[in-house]
Amino acid sequence: MDETNDLSGARVLITGGTGYVGSHVAVALAGAGAEVELLDNLCHSSANVVERVSDLAGVDVTLHRVDLRRQEDVPGVFDGAPFDAVVHCAGLKSVAESISHPLDYYDNNVVGTLNLLRAMDRAGTRRLVFSSSATVYSPEGVPPLDESAPIGPINPYGRTKSVVEEILDEVCAADPSWGVYNLRYFNPVGAHPSGRIGEDPNTDPANLVPRVLDVALGVRSEIAVYGTDYDTPDGTCIRDYIHVCDLADGHVAAVARLLDTATGCRAVNLGTGTGHSVLEVVEAVRRVSGREVPTRPHQRRPGDQPVSVADASMAETELGWTARRGLEEMCGDAWNWRHHNPRGFEDG
Fold first, then answer.
1. Is 241 an active-site residue?
2. Phi/psi at 51 (nearest 5 deg)?
3. Residue 265 and residue 36: Cα distance in Å, rounded?
4. Which CA distances in Å does 333 have to 21, 196, 253, 296?
5. What three-state secondary structure class fits 271?
6. CA gap 251, 36 in Å, rounded
7. Superfamily of domain 8-191+241-273 in the CATH hierarchy
8. 213-247: per-residue pLDDT in tens?
9. What are the phi and psi torsion angles at 344 (to 5°)?
10. Residue 137 pairs with which residues in a beta bridge?
């Protein structure tokens, strides 16, 4: 445990706590000494996660099966012992799905957040870490992107994150007793090194690494590479990938800072500051899996940017946090999870 982030005695609620990021945040917070409880409606996750998180945390973890869209159900979560902070990971996250079902995204991501904030305010819990996204940035921004880069999301998913950030800014401006960190994730990948928890999409994964792992496992025949003529060293898009355990550690640092002195609303990037191309990711999975990963070039997709990389220096200054794990470890841990859990959390 990082002694500078000792959360012994703190009670933290994690919304979306059985999801990919939320489950890793739960383990990391418990490792820092916090008492964690999870909230999830299980629409895109499994109740089996709770047992695995409890095993890794070394204590029984409580799950509140609650849908944040149901305003009448949310206040009851706060009826017990008071929470010191909330980590808000609950939200729909598929860019493609948000384009075809925008109302669902605004309902879940924005209305659900409003219901949570009202319940928190009534309970006197006014410390929040919000799972935001690098999709809030405009494609006009010049990488590496720092927190002052222009905001201009180009899809409903990104706009829901931007709207929530604006709401949180205004809540903090109206009431100085609130403290909020908007953590803008770049591209979370990897899994807990134990292989007990990891990414388990119950729909067709849109992200690169799960698709590459599917090819290595023989679930897919090849990986589509959308665009091989970008102005990058190998012609393919470059993204900033961050190990989910590093991401979780960033949440621990943010909670610790909020419970110490921080008030107001701050946006902070969580990324590595290093970009990797599509073909570099494919090659890393080949190395860690020892499997072939055939690729097939395709035309560019509309809206894809050649390079998206974080300037994560504010996270180091503000939170004392930096990413520690590289691409090889990210892919190795992701492969370890998928190889030993080919059916995800259905594997018991």
1. no
2. -65, -40
3. 23
4. 15, 10, 22, 25
5. coil
6. 13
7. NAD(P)-binding Rossmann-like Domain (3.40.50.720)
8. 999 999 999 999 999 999 999 999 999 999 999 99
9. 65, -140
10. 151
Q: Could you give the C-alpha distances from 1 to 27, 31, 35, 80, in angstroms and in order?
A: 12, 6, 15, 28
What stretch of H or E contains 183?
strand 179-185
Among candidates 1, 32, 37, which has minimal Cα distance to 22?
37
Q: Give me the residue spans of the domains in the chain.
A: 8-191+241-273
pLDDT of residue 194: 97
Pairing of strands 179-185, 187-189: unpaired
Q: Quick one: which of 106, 128, 107, 108 has its CA closest to 117?
A: 128
Give the C-alpha separation, 169 to 157, whole Å: 19
Tell me the C-alpha distance between 218 and 164, whole Å.
Answer: 39
Structure tokens at 247: 């991401």
pLDDT at 295: 98
Q: Which residue has the tokens 């890794």?
A: 56
What is the dihedral sign for C-alpha 82, 87, 89, 91?
positive
Burial zone of 99 (CB within 10 Å; 0-12 exposed, 13-18 middle, 19+ buried)? middle
Residue 112, C-beta contacts closer than 8 angstroms, at least 6 positions apart:
67, 68, 69, 90, 91
The active-site residue out of 20, 105, 157, 181 is 157
- The set of residues, in sequence order, having a beta carbon less than 8 Å from that of 63 and lying 6+ positions away, is 17, 18, 37, 38, 39, 40, 47, 50
The ranges of the chain with pLDDT < 50 are 1
For 124-273, where are the alpha helices, taking DSSP H only? 156-174, 208-217, 244-260
On whether the CB atoms of residues 45 and 87 are closer than 8 A, the answer is no
Tokens describing residue 142: 């010049």
The partner residues of 297 in beta bridges, in order of sequence, read: 225
| Phi, psi angle pair for 250, to nearest 5° | -65, -35
Residue 1 confidence (pLDDT):
45
Evaluate whether 77 touches 39 at the Cβ level (below 8 Å).
yes
